[in-house]
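Hey,

Quick one before I head out. I ran the complex with S-adenosylmethionine overnight. Inputs first:
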Amino acid sequence: MPKQHGTLYIVATPIGNLADLSIRAIQILQQVELICAEDTRHAHTLLQHHGINTHCSSLHQHNEAQAAQGIINKILQGASIAIISDAGTPLISDPGMPLVTLAHASGIDVSPIPGACALIAALSASGLPVTPFTFLGFIPRTSNARQSLFKTKQHATETWVFYESCHRIKHCLTDLAAILPGNRQVVIAREITKLHETIIKASLTDILHLVEQDNNMQRGEFVVLIAGDTIEKKPTTLTEQQQDILVTLLKECSIKTAVSLAADITKVRKKLLYQAALDLSSP
Ligand code: SAM
């Protein structure tokens, strides 16, 4: 009789508080033949804390493509194997994709052991609409690339979420403020489940101000959530000040340039500015 395949378990681990490991996760991590961990030294802290002595090998972004076939072969021969990342759910901005893809292609059962995930924890506490939402993972590191990305998302109506490092959080919010209106609702979820957990929901202007003023708000790990652009709230007329800006620009430039500059200055939709410019220019 052919030997039964083992199972590949995708085990979520805590994102800060070591107690956030489920009973089933502990059982599975004790039962499997091997735990593939993103960083074995990091894994040992968690495993020791929970009295788990299973053998660990490393599976990280630099070796996973090569290591995947060897792990799959072991599972095909009957071993059950778990993968864990340094924190949270594997594959969510973490290693594991080549292995899971290969497991499916090899007819191996892939079983998730759900638990902590910074994205879901932040979303659940954000007070922003959760369906639909878009997860962008880590966003680009350079200002130009970030702003280009934000431009593609500025009129998205769903909540959008991304991971950002403490080194770039201030620059990231500054870039956001260059593209989105200052009154857009933003949530930053910092150090979730840890001592300095901070979840703040406020306007983009206020959040940027807070992060600029308080160095503590530039420390730790961050999830950033942006409220979608609400169509109902889109203005259908210009304010007096916006109209004055447009009138001034129309005196100096073509309609196209005036509208483009006015959009940059006021953050009002170009379509609305065009209509106003045409109305203002018609005799
Ligand atoms: N797989 C993980 C998960 O399920 O959330 C994410 C791993 S990714 C390499 C690490 C990033 O997740 C951090 O830079 C931060 O943006 C976010 N993150 C992880 N733990 C967090 C926490 N406790 N609080 C806030 N953000 C966290």
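The pocket of S-adenosylmethionine is lined by residues 15-16, 85, 87-89, 92-94, 117-119, 163-165, 189-194, 221-223 (CB under 6 Å).

Talk tomorrow,
K.
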